[in-house]
Automatic annotation (TrEMBL):
Pfam families: Sugar_tr (PF00083). PANTHER family: SOLUTE CARRIER FAMILY 22 MEMBER. This is Major facilitator superfamily (MFS) profile domain-containing protein. It comes from Carya illinoinensis (Pecan). Its main location: membrane. GO terms for cellular component: membrane. It is a multi-pass membrane protein. Belongs to the major facilitator superfamily. Phosphate:H(+) symporter (TC 2.A.1.9) family. It is found in: Membrane. Keywords: Membrane, Phosphate transport, Symport, Transmembrane, Transmembrane helix, Transport.
């Protein structure tokens, strides 16, 4: 399809609007990571308020049961998977811009709703309503995944498209850091303002603190609402799906700061949509391999990535041993501080290594390297875990653990978000990205629930925790190796090519 407006997009110089689009599109990913990483310290506050059990040891006395924690995580992930499927399809049927504002609205309102979880006296009632709002939050976040990736890919030029989409995804790193920072600030303010005595381990206003932390996650997303509503529809959707080339040229004149006369054709060739419907035999013959590769890669990655996030609970116990009992604010503060250190030292650098190298090395090489290095690191942690790490965590352990996040983000965690936005035709692009992402969230549910079961089952039977951890980590290494095989055998490289060149490959 030799439309001038699409050629202008592919060759356009980097402009201010591209950076503005990164911020706008990245707020959904920011909210996603904020919501995920504020949960560990919040569960500490919730446990202190609602789960005190005098019959248990000091270590277990205030702990929210692992089954409850995994349920809270799984509910949000289920909502995210459904949101990716529904909003991904709507993005192709209705348009990217029209659906974009709806997903943001759901995110903002449900984030606020999490803080207003009602029935404050019974833990089951509070966490039930919190789970409902987190499910709604997951719907909004899930809708943002395919729309953000698709919009950024359709606005970017072909030389720096990977870096722009990776920059959108890197907003997750800043969401993690912000969640940790907000938690530390809120806990410090409440700790100092409450004048808590050393004996008062569960101050009354702790129930307010965790609600404020959750609601503050809605603020950055809300600030981008006007920008989202003022964004034009992407030229590729307007020209290739709606078949309105003139309107696409008008919209791009506002975005690219180029005169419309430079890329308007007097008699433009009429874009013809693919003559085959979604999920037809022709679709699977041409795009089935790509959809399978994207879905399986994301599925395998999220099993590992979300398991690794939940593994932090083990890290906290080893790196934050309690010589004496402390109040809820200090406990939550220390957990958030450790999260912030990991984010600054490994998570955020991993994202930005991808931003820099993605259009130099390529998607497939980065994804394969990430899977391979993660597999090695998990083996290095898992095989000697029982003898070396389980009783005496040290700096070497933290370095290895941080490397799992670095190579996840300088690897498949970022590339699985990028590649589905580049491989499929415009009329299927958002849908296929949503399907790939939903497969990933299915893996995340399996990883989060399965990992918690594996690491706690043996402990509840009286065995040391390491007996459950060692096989779990080795299994995660094996999953990474399967992801490496899928990447090398089935994933196509998209670097340096226009979206139309990628979608026209007849495989």
């Amino acid at each position: 399809m030799a439309l001038k407006v699409l050629s202008a997009l592919d060759t356009a110089r980097t402009q201010l609007y591209h950076f503005k689009a990164i911020i706008i599109a990245g707020m959904g990913l920011f909210t996603d990571s904020y919501d995920l990483f504020c949960i560990p310290p919040i569960m500490i506050l919730v446990g202190r308020v609602y789960y005190e059990n005098e019959n248990l040891s000091d270590e277990e006395k205030y702990r929210v049961p692992p089954a409850v924690v995994s349920t809270m995580v799984a509910i949000a992930l289920l909502g995210t998977a459904i949101g990716q499927l529904v909003f991904g399809r709507l993005g192709d049927l209705v348009g990217r811009r029209r659906v974009y504002g709806l997903s943001l609205t759901i995110m903002v309102l449900s984030s606020i709703g999490c803080g207003f979880s009602f029935c404050t006296r019974k833990s089951s009632c509070v966490l039930g309503s919190l789970g409902l709002f987190r499910f709604a939050l997951g719907l909004g976040i899930g809708g943002d995944y395919p729309l953000s990736a698709t919009i950024m890919s359709e606005f970017a030029n072909k030389k720096t498209r990977g870096a722009f989409i990776a920059a959108v995804f890197s907003m997750q790193g800043f969401g993690i850091l912000t969640a940790s920072t907000v938690t530390m600030v809120v806990c410090t303010i409440f700790d100092r303002a409450s004048n808590i005595s050393p004996e008062d381990l569960t101050p009354r206003d702790a129930d307010i603190a965790w609600r404020i932390i959750l609601m503050l996650g809605a603020v950055p997303a809300a600030f981008t609402f006007y920008w989202r509503m003022s964004m034009p529809e992407t030229a590729r959707y307007t020209a290739l799906v709606e078949q309105n080339v003139v309107q696409a040229a008008r919209d791009m004149e506002k975005v690219l700061e180029i005169s419309m006369n430079e890329f308007v054709e007097e008699n433009p060739p009429l874009p013809t949509p693919p003559p085959y419907p979604l999920f037809s035999k022709h679709f699977f013959r041409r795009h089935g391999r790509d959809l399978m590769a994207c879905s399986w890669s994301w599925f395998l990655l999220d099993i590992v990535f979300y398991s690794s996030n939940l593994f932090q609970s083990q890290i906290y116990e080893q790196f934050l041993p309690r010589k004496k009992r402390v109040n809820a604010y200090i406990d939550a503060f220390d957990v958030a501080k450790l999260q912030a250190i990991i984010a600054i030292c490994s998570t955020i650098p991993g994202y930005w290594f991808t931003v820099y190298f993605i259009d130099i090395i390529g998607r497939v090489r980065i994804q394969a390297m990430g899977f391979f290095c993660m597999a090695l690191v998990y083996l290095a942690i898992g095989i000697p875990y029982e003898k070396h790490w389980s009783n005496d965590a040290n700096a070497g352990f933290m370095i290895l653990y941080g490397l799992t996040f670095f190579f996840a983000n300088f690897g498949p965690n970022t590339t699985t978000f990028i590649v589905p936005a580049e491989l499929f035709p415009a009329r299927f692009r958002s849908t296929c990205h949503g399907i790939s992402g939903a497969a990933g969230k299915l893996g995340a549910i399996i990883g989060s629930v399965g990992f918690l079961w594996a690491s706690h089952e043996k402990k509840e039977q009286g065995y040391p925790r390491a007996i459950g951890m060692t096989p779990s980590l080795i299994i995660l290494s094996g999953v990474c190796l399967v992801g490496l095989v899928v990447t090398l055998l089935f994933t196509r490289e998209t670097m340096g090519r226009s979206l139309e060149e990628n979608e026209n490959d007849d495989l």
